Amino acid sequence: MKAIILSLCALSIFHSASAEESCGEVTIADMNWASASFMANVDKMILEFGYGCRAKLVPGDSVPTTTSMTEKAEPDIAPELWINSAKAVLDQSVAEGKLRLVSQSLSDGGEEGFWVPAYLVKKYPDLKTIAGVKARAALFQHPEDPEKSMLMGCPAGWACQITSENLFKALELEKSGFEIVHPGSSAGLSGAIAKAYERNQAWFGYYWAPTAVLGRYNMVKVDLGASVDLEHFQSCITKHDCLNPKVSAFPKSPVWTVVTEKFAKRAPSATAYLEKRAYTNANLNAILAWIEENQADGEYAALHFLKQYGSVWANWVPEKTAQKIRKAL
After folding, report:
1. Would strands 149-152 and 77-82 be described as parallel, antiparallel, or unpaired?
2. Is the pLDDT of residue 244 over 80?
3. What is the pTM of this model?
4. Disulfide engineering: 189 pairs with which of 132, 183, 209, 325, CB 3.0-4.6 Å?
């Protein structure tokens, strides 16, 4: 009987070890911006608590991480990769069977646009459209010239400075009395929105998501009166020398979770979780606002998310796995 019990214990240990070895050690890129660090920490905790992985965060950034994953198969996972930043390398690596795009980190994509405060749209519903903004141009008074209106653009040197200038021209906003003004920094841009909200003032300008600002302040994206013309946007709107820009909505920026093929084959259950795991801009805007308000790091934010957003992440894993995670929390 003693021999049988010992044999059963050994068998149990063997199966437990085998289950863990199917995932084993996992390296996750911890990118140097808030949403990516948050995602990396959520993945680390779920893989550890739910799948028995030995997860480790490693510093990362878009292009260096993509290159390292391609050439060295390290790290195993890049949770938030804005793939346009390294599209050629990614396309080739996927074609060669080195990397796999497993899911869209942002289900609705990275978002750019021209925005106005929601309280202003409540008062003037036509401001949801660019035609309405033009008709009410006098609301958006230029801070240095009361005879003009202002569209706040993008910080100098950013790619969105070019796109906002070209769309300003395409939309013929100058004919409606507008002048585009570029803030000196990201802080200046977000500060302008905060100032308008505090004073209940009119504001019209460029911003993007996911961000803490759009999590904190309710803004409405203005309909530019055109659908996305991706070919023209990429070949002209994004270029300094775009001579004849045409109106196009801002295209969504694809944001994906990328894993090495070695990891995907070694850990199919963990990969299945990553295939289901996706955030919306609304989710991330709220989380990023919470991070900023609480001066939280990625780990603290991940714990907050797992404790407060159970109805979201429980859909990404089997119920038995969800129970393990809840128990660990």
Report:
1. unpaired
2. yes
3. 0.82
4. 183
